[in-house]
Structures are given as structure tokens and as C-alpha cells.
Amino acid sequence: MAGRCSPLLGGRTPGRDAGASPLPPVGERLACLRPSRELLEFYRRKVAEFDGEHEELLQMLEKYRFTTEDQHKMEWEMRQREGEIAELQKALSDMQVYLFQGREQALRLYAENDRLKIRKKIQHLLALVGPDAGEITYFHKEPPHKVTISQKQTQPTGREPLKRTKTVTRRKASRGDEAIESPESYKKDSQTLLLQVEALQAQMEEQTRLAKEQVESLLEDRRIRVEEAQLQHQRDQDRISALTDKLHRTQSLLYDSTRDFLQLKFEGRAQEKCWMAEKDRLLRELDACRDRLRQGRGGHVQPARQEAELSGLSRQALEEQLKQAHRLADMYREQCVGLETELAQIREEGDVGREIFKERSDKMAKRLQLMTQRYEALEKRRSMEVEGFKTDIKHLRQRLKEVEKQLFKVTLNVGPNQDLAILQEVRQSNTRTRKIQGELKTLKAKIYGLENELRLC
């Protein structure tokens, strides 16, 4: 550093640089500057400012980290609250549906109650007045269950049938004579009225059924829409949670990277501070050397030269040691590279050996499985053949017994000439049985041979 900065030790002057190029680089110009106390003080102030800035940045980074963590917690709580709100809205909609069904049931009960009241009033009036000779009143044992009447129309529906029944009874009472005189017209009117009532009841039932089907279809549509909305909400929630986790991870990574950057920056400035301290020390040593040089210029020129020669020799020795250290480092590096290549080859050979062993073990396992399958098939075949041989022997024995019985019967009914024929047939049957027994023995020997081969395999 001192040799580069001082012009006495071989540094380049600005005049030479200006002659070589019109504008030398910044590094060369800084190298030609002579360090001074003011420059050191300036660098000390800059390092102190950098330390203060580093502390401020660390504090701001910690503050931002706490802010992001609080924001993440608040977003998580907000998502939980949104989920609870969605569940409450779903429960509220279900309660509204149940309330609608309850209101419908209440309206149905109100309508049935009104009908019962009307029937009771009609029965009471008929009991008080008494039926006419040509009048017949019919009542249902149970009111129809498919008719729905709204709650607002309960009172008018209770009064209108009374008026209608009163008007009908009055008309019937006023026209009693006409009904007696013309029973056929009365029957026709009653039939038409009954048909009209039945048609109206059918229309009301059809409208009620259509309304119920419409309500059920609307409820089903609502259920499907609610399920789709829930699925979409769940997908959105999963995506939001994934993005939030990703954002949190990126924020944490940004915090770590910023902290590492600030730490590296702080370490660089600390290193720069050490360099400045070393530069200050070297400047002090340079000043001391100059003082000693001025003091020893009078009569101590020879010791300075000797010291310079000694320093040159020591420098050469140090350079030689440095070269030797470089040679050793290169040699060790080559050895490391060679050992790494050998290790890579050994690993490759080990991988190849493992693959070969795995392939062989797989082949052996497949072969063993195939042999076991063959052995099982042969064992099954042997057992089936043994069963077949047993059944054949059993049939042959039964046949032999039948033949013996037939021979015994024939011997009872034949003469002396026929005995020879029977004996010949018996001999032939014996030869046949011996031949069959020989074939059975050969088959058994083959089966035993196959079993021995399988055992050896």
C-alpha cells in the first residue's frame, strides 16, 4: 500500500499518466494520491455515518417485519370471520326455508280449521231447521288434504260458505215446490253442480300440486346453487390461503435477504474500517521511517544500505517460499482432482454393480415364481391324473366283478364245450388286466420322475 501510494517507492506520477492517456482510470488516479490525515478523518466520518445508517436500516427492517406479521395475523382472523359469517348466512337461509315450510303448514291447518268450523255451523243450522223433503246434503268424512288457503283469506273463506249455504238453502226452500214438481231438472242441476265442484277441486288440486312442484324445484335449485357457491368459496379460500402463505414466505425471505445484505454491508464497512486502521498504522510507520532516514543521513548511510540489502534478501526468501507454497497447492489440487475422479469412478462402478445385482435378483425372482407356478400346475395335474387313475381302477374292478358274475351265471347254464371258451375269455381278460396294470405302473413311474425333476429344480 505504501509502495503504491508513495512516489519514492516506484508509484506513477500524474505527468506520466497524462502523457500516456488524456484521462487515466479512477483506480490509477486514486493510487497516485498521497494519503493524508484529512483523508483518514473523512473516511472515519463516513464509516461512522455508515454504521448509524446500518442501525437505522435494521430498526426499520424489524419494524416492517412486525407490521407484516400483524397484517398476516389480521388477514387470517378476517378469513376466519368471513367463514363464520358464511356459515351463519347459510344457517339463516336454512331457517328461512324452515320458516316458510312452517308457515305453509300453519296456513294448511288454518284452512282445515275453517272448513271444520263451516261444517259444524252447517250441521248445526241443518239440525235447527231440519232438511226439506227434496233436499239432500252430503258431507265428507275427512276434509281434503291437498287444498292450501293463505292466512289472509281465512276469515272470508269462513263467511262465504255460510252465505252460499244460506242462499242455496233459501233458494232451495223457495223453489221446493218446483223441485217437487220437476225432480228430473233438480237431479240435472245437482249433477251439474257436483261436476262443477269436482272440476274446481281438481283444478285446485292441480294448482296445489304445481305450486308444490315449483317450490320443490326452487328449493332444489337453491340447494344446488348453495353447494356450488360453497365449492367456489372453498376453492377461493384455499387459493387465498395458498397465496397468503406464499406472500408470507416471500416476505420472510425478503426480510432474511435484506438482513443478510445489511450484514454483508456492515461486514464490508468493518473491513474497510480495518483497512483504514492498517493504512493509518502504515502511515505512522512511514513517518517514523522518514524521521529515522533524516536522522541517519549524516553518518548512517551504510547501515541503511545493509538493512535494504537484508530486506531485499528476506523479500526474495519470502517470494521463494510463496512460490513453493503455490507449487505445493497446485500439487495438492491435482491430487484432489485425481482422487475425486477415482471416487466418481468407484461410485459409478458401485451403481452399475447395484443395477446388475438388482436385475439378476429380479430375474431370479421371476424365474422362481415361474417355477413355482409350473410346480403347482404339475402338482395339480398329478393329483387330477391320480384321481382319474383311481376312478378308472374302480370302474375296472366293478366291471371285473360284473364279468365274474356273468361268467358264474354262464357256467351254471353251459356245457363242457363252453367251459373252454369261458376259460379262454378269462385268460384274455387276465392278459388285458395285466396290460392295464403295466400301463398304470409306467404312468406312476413317469409321475414320480416328474416329481423328482421338480424337486431337483
Q: If you had to describe this structure to a student in words, what would you say it looks like?
A:
It is a single chain. The protein is an all-alpha fold and 457 residues long. The chain has 9 helices and no strands. It is flat.
Coarse structural class:
mainly alpha
Low-confidence stretches: 1-21, 142-181
**Rounded radius of gyration (Å):** 60 Å
Q: How many structural domains are formed by the residues?
A: 2
What's the shape? flat
Helix content: over 70%
Summarize the helix and strand pattern as letters: HHHHHHHHH
Total helix count? 9
Mean pLDDT: 74
Distance between the termini: 86 Å
Summarize the structure.
Residues 174-185 have a biased composition (Basic and acidic residues). It comes from Atractosteus spatula. This protein is mainly alpha-helical and 457 residues long.
Please describe the topology of this protein.
Elements: H1 2-5, H2 14-20, H3 26-32, H4 37-129, H5 154-174, H6 176-181, H7 183-295, H8 301-413, H9 416-456
Protein name: CCD77 protein
Organism: Atractosteus spatula (Alligator gar)
Biased composition (Basic residues): 164-173
Keywords:
9 helices, 457 residues, 2 domains, mainly alpha, disordered N terminus, 89% helix, single chain
